[in-house]
Design brief:
Distance between the termini: 86 Å
Helix content: 40-55%
Radius of gyration: 29 Å
Structural class: alpha/beta
Number of domains: 4
CATH class of the largest domain: Alpha Beta
Strand order of the largest sheet: 2-3-1-4-5-6
Number of helices: 22
Shape: elongated
Order of helices and strands: EHEEEHEHHEHHHHHHHHHHEHHEHHHHHH
CATH architecture of the largest domain: 3-Layer(aba) Sandwich
């Protein structure tokens, strides 16, 4: 028995993905095949419902009858087979030394469940999936990488059943295919669906099924009304596609008149020769985002969407006929509350609150969107769209957008590359409350000490585009403290001055 090396298998799965059931299927199949098998698990904590690892050791059947001594956890560099239900969790296994080129056969799903850091980043915080897959192929002995979650949906099954089928098809374990099928039947839960998933995963591993991919078809969505048709006519194709979505977003957000204002602003730039398709595409995207700013009315509107309740039901695994209760925990501050008032009145109240030192206070609220009174409160608030143009927040956003567009247009006349960077700087401002305030503060610094000095000829034009881009990056590095942005601004003071360039 001492000469027989266990086959070591590690499973990484997020909470609710059936990792424990998968480990049970594999263990039961191995035992039924006459082998000695042991499994242990280490629960994960937080972030994406918790990532749990399951470790199995399987000793092939021998005739000497001695009982083996098996390990309780994996040692780095000793894992023979790695199963992972999500791409980032798989990459973390490489970092931990669980996946090695000399030994590990890897089966992993390439779909993503984004982390808190990815979702809360000031810019696009998503980890590059192509780079992660490149790392996995580089550091594993063999790799089956596919969107197994999509395969499961196509089969009407669960992810763990597809992973079991892929494991069986890989022949990485000394266990016959029928033992895995028997383990599913013995479990006795959703047998037909799990067997469908098993067969789909098996076919994927053996080449009998292509990985499910979402095809990209570059077709222009059809315009449903005159204002949408106007978006298609007025802009280059790539920009028109985004503008069409922007029109629909802003019509839902406010009304068609507001969407028409969006198009007027875009058409103002489309007339410039220097405004190429890439410039117009980014401008159309960020302008739609900024014009659909998240005020209290918008938050209420999004909270009571029918699609949101259906999504929560689906994500929680709740049956269609079951009753669910959704509670919203909110902490609106004085600015979120009083910015819904007319500008003159709101400014007086907010100034008084600031003098009292109450600006940082907030009201804790728990609202049930599935209860009658909770839903009614949010529905009434969401219905105040007609009032939005009369509010302080609307006026402030209007002033900001016009200033941003003015700086962009002036930049476009002088330096088209810099104009693209000025457009992209709008990404510094997002969300609401303190997040929005920090972004706005950093953008104001960027505009006052970087963009405007270049436009006034106080700094050399050759550095314009790079300085704005680096300023945005610096602001994103430290959105609260602003030290990197401050250091960049100081460094620009050493550049030679340049005489103003007359506008064309």
């Amino acid at each position: 028995m001492n000469d027989v090396r266990p086959v070591k298998l590690l499973i990484a799965a997020l909470g609710g993905e059936g990792g424990g059931v998968l480990a049970s299927w594999i263990t039961n199949a191995a035992v039924a095949a006459g082998h000695v098998a042991q499994r242990t698990s280490i629960p994960g904590v937080a972030q994406r419902t918790g990532a749990t690892t399951y470790y199995l050791e399987i000793v092939p059947h021998t005739a000497n009858g001695k009982k083996p001594v098996l390990a309780l956890n994996p040692a780095p560099g000793e894992v023979d087979v790695m199963l992972a239900s999500e791409l980032l969790e798989t990459t973390r296994a490489v970092q931990a030394g669980s996946i090695t080129r000399a030994r590990t056969h890897l089966i992993a799903s390439t779909h993503r469940v984004f982390t808190v850091d990815e979702k809360s980043a000031m810019a696009d915080g998503r980890v590059d999936p192509e780079k992660m897959q490149e790392v996995l192929r580089k550091f594993s002995k063999s790799a089956l990488l596919a969107d197994l979650a999509a395969t499961a949906r196509e089969a009407g099954s669960q992810l763990n059943a597809v992973m079991l089928g892929a494991l069986a098809g890989s022949k990485a374990l000394p266990v016959g295919d029928d033992f895995f099928r028997a383990a599913i039947r013995a479990e006795g839960k959703a047998v037909a669906a799990n067997l469908r998933g098993f067969e789909a995963g098996y076919a994927l591993a053996t080449g009998g099924l292509k990985a499910v991919e979402t095809p990209f078809v570059a077709t222009m969505p059809r315009a449903e009304n005159e204002i949408e048709a106007r978006a298609v006519r007025a802009l280059p194709r790539d920009a028109a596609e985004i503008a069409l979505e922007g029109v629909r977003r802003l019509t839902d957000y406010q009304n068609q008149r507001y969407a028409a204002l969006y198009l007027e602003r875009l058409e103002r730039f489309a007339k410039h020769k220097a405004a190429d398709a890439a410039f117009m595409q980014e401008l159309a995207r960020l302008l739609a985002v900024r014009m659909s700013f998240e005020d209290t009315i918008r938050v209420a509107q999004l909270k009571i969407r029918k699609g949101r309740l259906e999504r929560l039901r689906r994500e929680s695994g709740t049956d269609a006929g079951a009753l669910i209760q959704v509670s919203e925990f909110m902490k609106p501050g004085p600015e979120e509350i009083f910015s819904m008032l007319p500008p003159a009145l709101a400014r007086r109240i907010l100034a008084w609150i600031e003098r009292k030192g109450w600006s940082e206070r907030s009201i804790k609220m728990k609202v049930s969107t599935t209860g009658f009174f909770g839903f009614l409160r949010l529905r009434l608030l969401a219905g105040l769209r007609w009032w939005r143009p009369r509010t302080l927040r609307y006026e402030e956003e209007k002033v900001w957008v016009e200033r941003w567009l003015d700086l962009t247009e002036r930049s476009l006349l002088r330096n088209p590359e810099a104009a693209k960077a000025v457009v992209a700087s709008a990404a510094l401002i997002k969300g609401y409350g303190e997040t929005m305030k920090r972004g706005l503060k950093n953008w104001d610094l960027l505009a006052k000490f970087v963009i405007e000095p270049f436009l006034e000829g106080k700094l050399p034009a050759a550095h314009f585009a790079d300085a704005v881009t680096q300023g945005k990056i610096a602001a994103l590095k430290d959105p609260e403290g602003g030290k990197p942005l401050g250091a960049l601004i100081e460094s620009l003071k050493t550049l030679p001055r340049e005489r103003p360039i007359a506008a064309e």
